[in-house]
Amino acid sequence: MLTVTTVNVNGIRAAAKKGFVEWLAGTSADVICLQEVRAEPEQIPENVREPEGWHTVHAPAAAKGRAGVSLYTRREPTRVQVGFGSAEFDGSGRYVEIDLPGVTVASLYLPSGEVGTDRQDEKIRFMGEFLVYLAGLRERAAAGGREVLVCGDWNIAHQEADLKNWRGNRKNSGFLPEEREWLTKVFEETGYVDVVRGLHPDVEGPYSWWSYRGRAFDNDTGWRIDYQVATAGLAKVAAKAWVERAAVHEERWSDHAPVTVAYEL
User: Fold this and answer.
1) The one catalytic residue among 30, 153, 162, 194
2) Staple 230 to which of 71, 153, 207, 234, CB 3.0 to 4.6 Å?
3) Is 36 labelled as part of a ligand binding site?
């Protein structure tokens, strides 16, 4: 069994003070993919930066206090790669991948975007480059008899079932037609599988992000934007997927909840 968790921590130093440390101590995951770490490694408390029993890889952004992705593994990786060969984005703290026996695992923080701004243009450029990389990654893995798992905050709700208020968000970044079409290409043209949706095909959600504004969490007015995206062989052995949603608002240590999948290897 390989259990993998992905979560956007919304600032690891803040999360560590609100419950992340306790969650980490109690998790049964073999691999944890973190996004929006927003700290240099030396700024992260030691018990979080290098906790006992874990091998860690931290890829901070060149821009201080922004983005940042990390990977925690019980087994030491045989290879580590920061970035995906992009002149623009490799220093942005948005992608890191490692090799474990038989599988390449990556933590992704795709730009969030904002319609009508440079941020949306950046997101579109990232998507264009990353799609090409994903296709090549799958081909290289297949040639070597390996599977691929890209986990993270993809910042796109793919289907209407992936966000509560889809009608009100059709013109907003995260649910734009061109973004959704791009994600369809990831699944239909490059041969990857949305693992959680595959295990929960006929439900709304399960959501993984709720705004801190209003009563979004209490009313479950959420978005499903945190995905585990796998090559077909790995997706076939996914046995169970769940969102580790806090029982009450006060117990949240991020505006995202961990998304966990158990794979029967």
Assistant:
1) 153
2) 234
3) yes
CATH entry 3.40.640.10 includes domain 2-263: no
Tell me which of 162, 194, 256, 263 is the catalytic residue.
Answer: 256
Per-residue pLDDT tens over the stretch 63-97: 999 999 999 999 999 999 999 999 999 999 999 99
* 249: annotated active-site residue: no
- Of 264, 259, 232, 265, the closest CA to residue 108 belongs to 259
Q: Has 155 been labeled as part of a binding site?
A: yes
- 256 known ligand binder: yes
Distance CA 116, CA 135 (A): 29
Using DSSP's 3-state secondary structure scheme, residue 202 falls into coil
The residue with tokens 């890209």 is: 150
Query: HSE of 215 in the Cβ direction (CA atoms, 13 Å)?
Result: 2
**158 known member of a binding site:** no
pTM of the model: 0.97
pLDDT, one tens digit per residue, over 109-123 is: 999 999 999 999 999
